[in-house]
Write a structure and sequence with these properties.
The complex is a heterotrimer of chains A (443), B (252) and C (484). Chain A is α/β, with parallel strands linked by helices. Chain A has helices at 5-17, 27-43, 59-63, 118-124, 126-130, 143-151, 385-393, 398-414, 423-442; strands spanning 67-68, 90-95, 98-99, 113-117, 156-160, 170-177, 183-185, 188-193, 198-208, 213-223, 228-236, 242-251, 256-263, 268-277, 283-292, 297-306, 312-321, 326-335, 343-352, 358-367, 373-381. In chain A, strands 1, 4, 5, 7, 8, 10, 12, 14, 16, 18 and 20 form an 11-stranded mixed beta sheet that branches. A 10-stranded mixed beta sheet of chain A has the order 3-2-6-9-11-13-15-17-19-21, with helices on one face. In chain A, helix 2 packs antiparallel against helix 6 and helix 7 crosses helix 8. Helices cover 24% and strands 35% of the residues of chain C. Chain C has helices at residues 5-15, 38-47, 52-66, 106-114, 144-149, 157-163, 165-171, 182-190, 431-439, 444-460, 465-478, and strands spanning 29-31, 90-92, 128-134, 137-141, 153-156, 195-199, 208-214, 225-230, 235-243, 250-253, 256-261, 266-273, 285-296, 302-309, 314-317, 320-323, 329-338, 343-352, 358-368, 372-381, 389-399, 404-413, 419-428. In chain C, a hairpin with a 2-residue loop joins strand 3 and strand 4 (137-141). Chain C is globular. Chain C starts with a helix and ends in a 6-residue tail after the last helix. The chains are: A alpha/beta (443), B alpha/beta (252), C alpha/beta (484). The structure holds adenosine-5'-diphosphate (ADP) and magnesium ion. Magnesium ion is lined by residues 43-44, 88, 173-174 of chain B.
């Protein structure tokens, strides 16, 4: 069991802040927060004995005191965008978990789209928020989501009305601005797509400054019948950051959730997604790539539950691990009794580029229905020697050949991204990482 | 002796969709009948109804095989009684050697008929003789049933099974499609070798090419779930010239 | 080799009952008092006239066991085991240890004949030496003389402790430490007998060695311990078979098997496990909690596990390989069939430590009725295991909509030059295949047996001939009544 001091410290922070957190006057929200802190206190920080955390230990949280982040502004001019100019419909910016009203540049919004911060939404229309907040998914065993529920202040609030289609992507930038002391913040996002609606959300997590911070986000997504959400996430947090994102997605009949995650940042990260396909014909694509080096630790943990007939999922994650970094991929596909004629496919591929790098993979199938087709595959290894030799035989120096092959290995996953405007930025990010990997190897 | 097969006003549906809509067809012992018809007209459906495949629901009508109610029998009883289907799409069974499959099938049928099972030696002799006649390679016997077989090899394998099992009523579902001329001759030889006064054969095809080698006594055109026309072997030649368009229109 | 459905049918006709080994032998037994205590451990050790060091080893294990938690991670459920409600020692009386087969109780010989294992050497299967374990003790070992000529030691564990104490002391617990897990720990405290094999340098064992385990007495746990040591350059193929009578109460089988392969040695270990699985509603049956592990200590050594698991109410079993020697090879081939209310959580661990070590895992799981089955496997590549390779293929077949099949592999790699590949599939038994077989005249049950045997073929092919035929029959029998 890890030391209980850090848990105590968060509980004390909560006690000190509870009166001033958003929605303090709403009894249902106070109850939700109280239940959250209680659950967090009883669960404690995830310990190695907990199967879901077998390969990831939150050491920085055990050893560092993270103080609650206060309001903070940054200069917007320095914030990069992932989307080509003119390709942005909406841009929402959060700094240390709070919406920077002044920095948001909402463009022309079609009728029926509600976009902004959760704190605002709680002020304007608490009922509408209360209908969904804390109700999507069953986060019983997730200590950090419980902590988020207790401490949440703000985050993305997106609601798209029945039948409305938002054509251009919504870019959401989460800035972690390190201060003189380690800071913690707990963004909470709520995305509700009503039946037949459609939207694309691009999350971009970046860090400013050198210090440590703890970004502990929680995201709830509900996708109504026949609705479609494309959800892309680029995690490029600061070098000392701890990034924990816990996400629950609920899909109704014939809905589509299409997600892609690119992870390169943070000292320690955990991207945990639970998807429930609750209506017949619901479909989910969960893809991603990760590139880590130094002493980074990157954990991707996913659960996809097929709870209705004719549901399908496809999941591909690829990663490159260099130097002393460590990556974890745990992917679970569950087909519940009665979810007949469903199918699930999962693939995890990892390249180890150094003799001190490590990968731990646990792909899991849990099947309770017979009329299904499920498969998973996992490979771990170095670059294909034959391919490497082929390139060198054509005169390409080894370092360059390696870079080409690594880039091709990762780029493969980008093909899954439907928002084409995003691909160049993703490719650039991969290219940048690979070329600096080669440089570091050479020096 | 009476008829080999009597199909009376047969209606059948798949997934609630009516496919066969009143088939009448009678085949006598020793006769070879051909069924031709456009894609999707219900030819394979008829073959599956005759062999008892699950999901093919008979909603009306009757089928008598040697005077007995065929539809009341399980698929394996029908096989044991001598009804054989050469599948349009032969099924792959990984891990089960072709010879094992043949031996199990033959001995199951012999047992059904109250005969003693063949021992390994007798069986090997029988199979060696048969593959020689059919020009099938030894190597094909060792491989798992249909796994990795080319289209042509699969069809030859169906004929090999037929030659070993010696059915009384053989139904060949497009056994000719995708075959080169040599393979086509092999198939035809296999079928013709089986032609005796006690056996009947139903050949499903949509080219008349095969009928040059297996000369039918009667030809029927199946269109839109019914026998739209019947005639002698010259009907096949006529269809070759005119196509099936006339039948599609007529029924529409 | 052909799948013989005829034999399946013959077996059915002879017995009428699905589990054909469910009879009880009426034989007088020498039994320890019920329950577990230090005194029982001392009783067992005294009965077997063991040296002091072994009693100490047992007692240490027992004391540790008292405070050890039950392994809780497996995907199986059962009520807590009352360890005091069982006998820990039961031996057929008269056994002062038979000197030759002529001295073996004829009732016992008849029992093994009924099980298809004739022990009289002249009648025994040519080329297989058998050690027969009845409840707690070894009752007969065949072909000993012939093996001795080659220097091969094949005897009961009790005899090995008496006759070859230096070998036993050196290797016992060296692969599976007494404290490895609760079940292995219990075994270390109370094991009663088992088989011991030693192959001297350079000897290729002239025949298959085989142990046949039989639980007969009621309320008795079976805790056998098997130790196989293959010295440099030797080879042995070892077979293990198990059955038990049909009884309403659950019986515990907690065995430990340790294999040691030195330089260039090879051990092939095959199991056909057909303990009584309990009835259709899950009443009775054997809890099969077994720890099997092999150490490839030497360079170029090889250990291959093949298992066909069709019996037991609960199976908890992970035959593993520790690949220490450079270029050593580990293999795991498994067929597990669960029907009715059976539960199985089984798989393997391949621990790559040496350079150029290779492992291969082929697991075929079939779940029917209301059964629950899990493949659980670990492939670990340590930092020093240059050029290690693993390939894993796990396929599950579901028959009926009330059963379940789970696949839980753990893959850990710390070496960039290693290549690990894992593939798994789950699907239902194909209706098209069943119809194709039935159109050719096979009954529904025979069609299922044939298709499933095909599905398992890659594994069944690994078995020695005598076992392969038995195993194919078992596949059919185990799945009886699984399709409507
Ligand atoms: N399993 C099925 N479910 C629904 N429709 C089917 C199925 N099998 C066949 N059909 C339909 O039945 C019709 C007849 O098919 P089939 O008998 O295969 O035709 P043919 O063999 O003459 O080409 C087609 O319209 C086909 O689409
Ligand atoms: Mg057809």
């Amino acid at each position: 069991m890890p030391d209980s001091a850090p848990v105590q410290s968060f509980v004390e922070q909560f006690d000190a802040l509870r009166g001033e957190l958003p929605g303090a006057a709403l009894p249902w929200l106070c109850d939700l927060r109280a239940a959250g802190i209680e659950r967090f206190a009883s669960l404690g920080l995830p310990a190695p004995g907990v199967e879901a955390w077998k390969y990831t230990r939150l050491r920085p949280l055990e050893t560092t005191d993270f103080l609650p982040a206060t309001a903070h502004t940054v200069n917007i001019d320095h914030l990069p965008t992932l989307l080509p100019q003119g390709g942005i419909d909406h841009r929402v910016i959060f700094v240390n978990g709070r919406l920077m009203q002044c920095l948001a540049m909402p463009g022309e919004r079609p009728e029926g789209v509600e976009l902004g911060g959760l704190a605002d939404a709680l002020r304007r229309d608490p009922e509408a928020v209360g209908e969904h907040l804390g109700r999507i998914g069953a986060p019983d065993g997730q200590a950090l989501l419980a902590l988020n529920t207790a401490m949440m202040r703000d985050g993305l609030m997106l609601r798209v009305k029945r039948g409305v289609s938002v054509a251009l992507p919504i870019e959401v930038v989460y800035v972690g601005a390190a201060g003189p002391q380690p800071l913690a913040f707990h963004p909470r996002n709520l995305i509700v797509l009503e039946p037949g609606s459609r939207a694309t959300v691009v999350e971009h997590h970046i860090g400013l400054g050198a210090g440590a911070y703890f970004a502990n986000s929680g995201t709830e997504i509900r996708i109504g019948e026949g609705a479609e959400l494309h959800h892309y996430k680029i995690q490029d947090e600061g070098a000392e950051a701890v990034h924990v994102a816990t996400q629950h997605v609920h899909l109704e009949a014939n809905a589509l959730y299409d997600a892609f995650t690119l992870t390169t940042g943070a000292r320690l990260s955990r991207h945990e997604v639970s998807v429930r396909l609750t209506g017949p014909g619901a479909e989910c694509h969960l893809n991603g790539a990760y590139m880590v080096r130094g002493k980074q630790h990157c954990d991707t943990t996913t659960t996809i539950e097929h709870m209705a007939p004719r549901t399908s999922c496809r999941e591909i994650f690829k990663g490159v691990i260099d130097e002393q970094a460590r990556a974890v991929f745990q992917g679970r596909i569950v087909i519940h009794r009665g979810a007949q004629q469903s199918n699930g496919h999962q693939l995890s591929k990892a390249l180890l580029l150094s003799n001190r790098a490590e990968i731990d993979t646990k792909p899991e199938l849990e099947i309770y229905a017979d009329d299904v087709k499920c498969s998973h595959g996992a490979t771990v290894g170095d670059l294909d020697r034959d391919a490497l030799f082929y390139l060198r035989a054509r005169g390409i120096p080894e370092a360059a050949a390696r870079a080409i092959l690594i880039e091709a290995f990762l780029a493969d996953t980008i093909n899954e991204v439907a928002a084409e405007g995003l691909c160049p930025a993703l490719m650039a990010s991969i290219g940048h990482w690979v070329s600096s990997a080669t440089r570091r190897a050479a020096s | 002796m009476g008829y080999m097969l009597e199909i009376k006003n047969l209606h059948a549906s798949v997934d609630g969709k009516a496919i066969l809509k009143g088939i009448d067809l009678t085949i006598g012992p020793g006769e070879v009948h051909a069924i031709m018809g456009p894609n999707g007209s219900g030819k394979s459906t008829l073959a599956y109804v005759l062999t008892g495949r699950e999901g093919y629901e008979v909603t009306e009508g009757q089928v008598l095989y040697q005077g007995r109610d065929l539809l009341a029998m399980s698929p394996e009883e029908r096989a044991g009684e001598g009804v054989f289907l050469a599948f349009q799409y032969p099924v792959e069974i990984p891990g089960v050697p072709n010879t094992t499959f043949l031996k199990e099938a033959l001995n199951a049928q012999r047992k059904h008929r109250g005969e003693t099972p063949l021992d390994a030696m007798e069986f090997i002799k029988l199979i060696r003789r048969t593959i020689k006649d059919l020009g099938i390679s030894d190597e094909l016997l060792k491989r798992p049933v249909n796994v990795g077989f080319s289209g042509g090899e699969k069809k030859r394998n169906e004929i090999l099974q037929m030659a070993i099992l010696k059915p009384t009523l053989a139904v060949l579902d497009e056994t000719d499609s995708g075959l080169d001329i040599d393979a086509l001759k092999t198939v035809a030889d296999g079928v013709n070798a089986l032609r005796t006064p006690e056996r009947s054969i139903l050949v499903i095809t949509h080219y008349q090419r095969l009928l040059d080698y297996i000369v039918p006594d009667r030809v029927h055109v199946l269109a839109q779930g019914r026998i739209a026309r019947s005639g002698g072997k010259e009907l096949a030649l006529e269809l070759e010239r005119t196509g099936y368009a006339a039948f599609a229109d007529a029924a529409a | 080799m052909a799948v013989s459905i005829d034999t399946v049918r013959q077996v059915k006709e002879v017995t009428e009952q699905t589990y054909k080994y469910g009879f009880v032998t009426d034989i007088e037994a020498d039994t320890a008092p019920k329950g577990l205590s230090e005194d029982i451990v001392r009783f067992i050790s005294a009965k077997k006239e063991e040296p002091e060091w072994l009693l100490d080893w047992r007692l240490k294990a027992y004391r540790h066991w008292l405070n050890m938690p039950e392994p809780a991670w497996a995907n199986v459920t059962f009520p807590p085991i009352d360890y005091q409600d069982a006998y820990y020692y039961s031996a057929p009386k008269s056994s002062d240890g038979p000197k030759s087969l002529d001295e073996v109780d004829p009732e016992l010989l008849r029992t093994y004949e009924k099980l298809g294992i004739p022990l009289r050497e002249q009648e025994a299967l040519a080329g297989v030496a058998v050690d027969a374990i009845f409840d707690s003790v070894s009752v007969a070992t065949t072909f000993k003389g012939k093996l001795e000529k080659q220097g091969v030691i094949f005897c009961s564990m009790s005899e090995a402790i008496r006759e070859h104490p230096e070998l036993v002391r050196k290797y016992l617990g060296s692969v599976v430490p007494a404290r490895d897990n609760k079940h292995a720990c219990l075994n270390s405290a109370v094991f009663t007998d088992g088989s011991f094999v030693y192959l001297p340098k350079g000897v290729r064992c002239p025949m298959e060695l085989s142990t046949y385990f039989r639980i007969n007495a009621a309320n008795t746990g079976q805790f056998e311990r098997t130790l196989i040591i293959a010295d440099a350059g030797s080879y042995v193929s070892y077979l293990e078979g198990c059955t038990a009578p049909m009884r309403d109460e659950v019986q515990l089988h907690a065995a430990v098997v340790e294999l040691i392969a030195l330089d260039d040695a090879e051990i092939k270990y095959s199991t056909v496990q057909n303990w009584y699985p309990g009835d259709k509603d899950g009443k009775g049956g054997i809890y099969n909690f077994v720890t099997k592990r092999g150490a490839c200590r030497g360079r170029n050594s090889k250990i291959s596990w093949t298992q066909v698991e069709t019996g037991s109410a609960i199976t908890w079993k992970y035959p593993s390989c520790i690949l220490q020697g450079d270029n050593s090879v580990g293999e795991f081939y498994s067929v597990a069939i669960t029907n009715n209310m059976q539960q199985a959580d089984t798989g393997t661990k391949m621990i790559h430590i040496g350079k150029n070590t290779r492992s291969r895992i082929v697991s075929k799981g079939i779940s029917a009725g209301r059964a629950q089955q899990t493949y659980r496997g670990l492939v670990r590549i340590s930092a020093k295991a240059e050029n290690a390779r693993n390939h894993t293929q796990c396929d599950s077949l579901l028959i009926g909509d009330r059963c379940s099949a789970h696949t839980v592999p753990y893959i850990e790699s710390k070496n960039r030059s290693a290549i690990v590949e894992h593939e798994a599939t789950t699907s239902k038994i194909s209706e098209d295949q069943l119809f194709y077989c039935r159109q050719r005249g096979l009954s529904q049950e025979d069609a299922v047996a044939l298709v499933v045997n095909g599905f398992c073929r890659e594994v069944l092919q690994q078995l020695p001939m005598e076992f392969a035929v038995e195993a194919q029959k078992l596949v059919g029998i185990s799945l009886e009544g699984s399709v409507g």
